[in-house]
Amino acid sequence: MIFKKDSIFFNFKMESFIFMNSHRTYKSTFVWLTVFGIAMGILEAIVVVYIRQIYYPSGFGFPIKFYDVRFFKVETIREISTVVMLISIGVLAGKNAFQKFCYFLFSFAIWDIFYYAGLKLILNWPPSLLTWDVLFLIPVTWAGPVLAPVISSIVFIIFSVLIIKRMENESISKLGLINWMSFISGTLIVFVIYIWDYAKIIIGGGYISDLGSLASNTKFISEITGYIPDYFNWYVFALGEILMLLPVVVVIRKKKLIL
């Protein structure tokens, strides 16, 4: 009987310990994802320092210089690998598909912000948040002022932290179809704004059918290496970011969300 009582007491203590740990899990997870994102962002900045030293020894600026086909493929693989790493850490951190997605967004955001922090620390670049940068290369070149991806990252952080916090505290059970549509629509709008300039060149120049071999198309290369983007549609960009944040507003205002 003593053994049985001790076993019951032990099981009770273990269940209490597990409950307390599960209640704190999302906080410690965000801490470690922040550490990971900072380290990865600084590492990415160091890699770009080397790339710019090779292709932009006098300092980065538009028009962009086009790499040879082999290096372009390597750079594309590097970007894909970066995204795979961020997805993987989100999958490892989350308990379910929704949490995995939110943790991925959070990791991506921390990485992106500290990538620019690393460039500023090492190269003193960008000179201002309105300085234009090449943001990504897949599926086409993304471009915009540095402030834009920083804003997107802040929105990702707000979205992921608040949603997971409410879900862990059992204030919500799911995000709901309408809110998902709002978030996805906003994301697509922001994506289109980022690729708008170079997508116009591809579509307007009739290169869309040759998309897989643009890196070796001399006419296309000549066109983009002479192009300097100078207008960013902040109004449409702001609309996209607002749509991404609307689900957060709904979650904050409702104690229980089942749509």
Strand-helix topology:
Layout: H1 2-55, H2 69-93, H3 97-123, E1 132-136, E2 142-145, H4 147-168, H5 177-204, H6 218-224, H7 234-253
Antiparallel strand pairs: 1-2
Helix pairs in contact: 1-3, 1-4, 2-3, 3-4, 4-7, 5-7
Describe the structure.
It is a single chain. With 259 residues, the chain is mainly alpha-helical. Helix content is 71%, strand content 3%. It has one domain. It has helices at 2-55, 69-93, 97-123, 147-168, 177-204, 218-224, 234-253; strands at residues 132-136, 142-145. A two-stranded antiparallel ribbon has the order 1-2. Helix 1 runs antiparallel to helix 4 (147-168) and helix 3 (97-123) runs antiparallel to helix 4.
Uncertain parts: 12-24
What strand line-up does the widest sheet have?
Answer: 1-2
Provide the succession of SSEs. HHHEEHHHH
Number of helices: 7
What is the terminal-to-terminal distance? 50 Å
Shape: globular
Strand content: under 5%
Decide which structural class fits the backbone: mainly alpha
**Estimated radius of gyration:** 22 Å
Kindly state the number of beta strands.
2
Helix content: over 70%
How is the main sheet built? 2 strands, antiparallel
Global mean pLDDT: 84
Number of domains: 1
Descriptive tags:
mainly alpha; globular; single chain; 259 residues; two-stranded antiparallel sheet; 7 helices
Kindly summarize this structure in a few lines.
The chain has 259 residues and is mainly α. The protein is built from seven helices and two strands.
